[in-house]
Amino acid sequence: MATWKQIVLALAVLAAAAFGWVLFFPGAQDVLSRWGIEWAHASTPKPGADTAKDAENTGRQVTVIAEQVKTATINDRLQAIGSGRAKASVTVNPYSSGRMTEILVEPGAHVEAGQVIARLDSDVEKIALDKAMAARDDAKAKVARFRALRASNAATAVQLSDAELELRNDELTVHDAQVTLDRRSVVSPISGTVGILPISAGNYVTSTSAIATIDDRSSILIDFWVPERFASSVRIGAPLTATAMANPTDIFKGTVSAIDNHIDEKSRTLWVQATIDNPADSLRAGMAFQVTMKFPGDTYPSVSPLAIQWGTDGAYIWTVKDGKATQVPVRIIQRNTNDVLVDAAIASGDMVVTQGVQNVREGSAVRVASNAGSQEPATATGS
Fold this sequence. Notes:
Blueprint: H1 3-24, H2 28-34, H3 40-43, H4 49-58, E1 62-68, E2 70-74, E3 77-92, E4 98-103, E5 110-111, E6 116-120, H5 123-151, H6 157-182, E7 185-187, E8 192-194, E9 204-205, E10 212-227, E11 239-244, E12 247-264, E13 269-277, E14 288-294, E15 298-303, E16 309-311, E17 314-321, E18 324-329, E19 331-335, E20 340-343, E21 351-355, E22 366-369
């Protein structure tokens, strides 16, 4: 292809691209106006442009449909999934090794703190205790004799002192033997419910063998994580509700009982712990819960999604005040199904154009038609 043909083709493509940009890009007219190219308005007509121009030139009002600004609150509710665990849970191990002679509880039984749940063989420990008690009794008798002799000056003070020291040592030996014998009985350190027993009577156990797991389910602790935007709002003692995922019809009330001291850098969440009562013992450790908390939240103006327009400087809306249209820039906070929460210089009750925005210009006269479709339009008044 000849060079001049390539140049002509390139110029044609550029012209088509420029025309498309002017025609379809929302802020093209404003950009060209800043460049001093005013003919762009005439070369890129839009639906209703003549109507708007005639309205500006003749002073006639442009009919639009508008809605009042409302308010809505966000960040006022937190819902999180957490995992429950018992108020206290312990795995019971024996103090020493030996043969398990008997287990005194059944799975699911409720035990009290200090209750014996199992015993190990203790014949050797009983013999050691009997020997210690015999030696102690002999030492007591010896002390009694020396005290009688000392009263008649038949024994020295040193002999009496040595006999009393021997008695104290024998008493300590008895105490040590008694503790050793007591530790052949496995006791529950807390009050709670016994889980499934992994060991039966007759097995040989060591100090690392798990005899039973006991859970105190009088209340349930729920661990859950909240987004960091709620971190400053969560307080110890704050009320909340929790529902078990397995039975969502039952709602349990509780409070925040613990808050971690830092935000997790990977998930950007804060670890929070809640406590709920379990008087009917219907909840179990390990259950999944949905936790709901309420906060005061942040309130923002709420407008119809149809009111949001876009220009070179971002999003904006048209407001109607005293029969005149004013362009107001907005920052979108949250999009919902039926409304958009924005940060803008508007208040509840202000009128915002939702239909007919293509005919509106800054400062143009407008009148608001009834949303009900009545034939007689109503002129907007200042808010």
